[in-house]
Amino acid sequence: MTIPLKYVARISAGQSPPSTEVTDLADGLAFLQGNAEFQAIHPAPRLECDSAPKQAQKGDVLVSVRAPVGALNIADRRYGIGRGLCGIRAHQCDERFLWWWLHSQRPRLDSVSTGTTYKAVTAEDLGRLPFPSLSVDCQHRIADFLDAETARIDELRSLTQRQAVLTAERFIEQMRRLTTGGGGHGFETEVPWMPHVHKEWNLSRVSYEFTTSSGTTPTSSRADYFDGPHPWINSSDIRDAPIRYISKHVSDAALTDFSVLKLSRAGSLVVALYGQGATKGRVGILQMDACMNQACCSLTSLGRVSEEFAFYWFRAHKEGIVTQAVGAGQPNLSQELIRRLRIPVPAADTQKKIVAELSEAEEHLRAHNSLLQRRHALLVERRQALITAAVTSQFDVTTASGRNVTEGVSA
Length: 411
Hints:
This protein is of the alpha+beta class. The protein is built from ten helices and 23 strands. Among the domains are: 2-133, DNA methylase specificity domains (Adenine-n6-DNA-methyltransferase TaqI, Chain A, domain 2, Alpha-Beta Complex), CATH 3.90.220; 191-345, DNA methylase specificity domains (Adenine-n6-DNA-methyltransferase TaqI, Chain A, domain 2, Alpha-Beta Complex). The chain has helices at residues 95-103, 106-112, 123-127, 136-179, 206-209, 252-257, 307-316, 318-322, 335-340, 348-391; strands spanning 2-4, 9-13, 23-24, 30-32, 47-48, 55-56, 61-64, 72-74, 79-81, 85-90, 130-132, 186-188, 196-198, 202-205, 210-213, 230-233, 241-243, 249-250, 269-272, 283-286, 291-292, 296-301, 342-345. Strands 3-5-4-9-6 form a five-stranded mixed β-sheet, with no helix packed on it. Strands 15-22-19-20-17 form a five-stranded mixed β-sheet. Helix 1 (95-103) packs across helix 10 (348-391). 31% of the residues are buried.
């Protein structure tokens, strides 16, 4: 048996004040326009508006009524709320049960959401949601159960994510050790982020071991420049992996009219000189002849240092390399800076052994990460299934504990 949510909770639709009255957060009333500031449980507000016409009180459940519809947070203080949110306050129900029950309603909200540009629901849609007709004591017991059991699952999710981070860090350290000949005594390099190199190896500038080139962006208004057969790499194409597929191409006319736009041969190493987030400093090895824009730099071996060895060396020392970036605002790398970097030069057979060992290690890393991602996805599914089963009384939470809490529950 169910009753409409509006009979057990008060639902307040947000309303947006004039934009001139919304300012950066200082000591005024924190304001949330939508779900952009949502975190795991409580929002992290960035704005304030003392004249916000609609407010949510501490303890209210904040529901996103615009994409992603149904995202949830709990108000940890009084907030002004914009039209992207509704505040729901428990009235004749347990407020923690209300929180968990709303998690189970996201599929239903998705099904009733409307809109062409973006999906949205209304306060009326929320008010019509079928709330289970359970005693407040029963709701309280279910909420206690879900508090404890979801905490267990969340801890497993956190440990899974931590394991993935540690595994990646271990591989970076392995790359760093092997590409510098670490593990024994070496000579000092005077490079802060690469202090030692194997005593029997040489150290040389990148410009002495590779030919380098960059590229440019042809005139965007000329459509004929972008309908040709030549792959044209942007920094977003570089992902610390072989570069096999490029979505953008340029024509022979572009190569003719822009002399800096040159084809680099397959097998060349490409470095991202700048880009958003972690893009800057990433590398990739071309699997086809290609040219690139000004945000990339290609390195073609002159013989002593292979592109494959350099591929792992750049990845191992990315953190140190990107500290060399210059410029106001968003510092960038440059072709000249890359050319000045000093890279170890082990014997050719040593390079091959290092590349083979790291390639095999990376295959194992990918397989391990795939298992971790699968575990995390299953935990997310199990968490949602457990919440839905508990709030709809599919099992008795008073007898469920520990290992058997999900017995009979399907994700």
